[in-house]
Amino acid sequence: MKASTIAMSTLMLMVLILAFQPYQIAHAQMASLESKALTYVENVLPFDMSHYTVTVSSAYSLPSAPNDPTITQDVDIDLNSSDSTIHAVCVYVNGALHQCGVSTTGAPPVSDRTYANVEDVAARILQAHQEQTGLDSTGLLDTLSLVNGTTSANVSLGDVSLSVSQMPDIAGSRTVNGIPVPVPSNSTFSVLFHWTRTVNGVVYAQVNLSFDDGVFCDLQDERGTQPIANVPATAADQVNSISLTTLPQLVNNTSAKTNQSLHESLTAPILIDALVACVITVLAVISIRAKMKRTKIKREVSKRD
Prior knowledge:
By secondary structure, this protein is of the alpha+beta class. 38% of the residues lie in helices and 32% in strands. The chain has 5 helices and 10 strands; from the N terminus they run ααβββββααβββββα.
């Protein structure tokens, strides 16, 4: 085998290994995201996980606008029991959790403990959310402790403000002049906790936490995916137009660093594999050359004999 042929084979092998690197990284990122979402659901949602069979679906990416570097990914997780199903969706933007919401069918979800009221559940979720994301919720918890009951309220401590809104659920509908009109319930209510932070006179949305008839419904956190330092002051005052389904379009520097670290940690083993393959090939070349040399020597000895 010619040395040039061996060198070309080695080069092609290294190119193939490196060509598959992005796919291996993407697969590892997806697997990591699924694991992260499962850990979040198990530790943050106020449900008794031992009562349910947990199924995690593969993470999938949502479409983004042209030239938009934001990467938005969803992970669906189902909690199934004989009498009910909880469908949870965790939304990640550039690798950082942005939102986690649930919908339930069948019997009411089984709680992980006995709570005094919705504020108690909210406090438990915020504390667990802080442990899972590393986002400090001290100011949120301090304002929450000032709320007495889930009727409409507005409280502030320092630069953090909390507004609590209570709205009746829709119990059905009635027809008025041929037009169906929703009928509010007198017994079940939805509660929204909405935290904001004021910096240099500008109000920034922080966290939304909602409940439907006392059951956790949705958590949306802008701090991890849209830090205040990255939000233009002219576009920051969005308190009155916040939507629980709106996804941020700004890149999170912290998440980018996390993704870069993940990329580096994944790239190193792949490059090591390429190096190992190269070394193996070189050793094979040396072995072949030695074998050819031994064969040549044997032939010369045969001719002399």
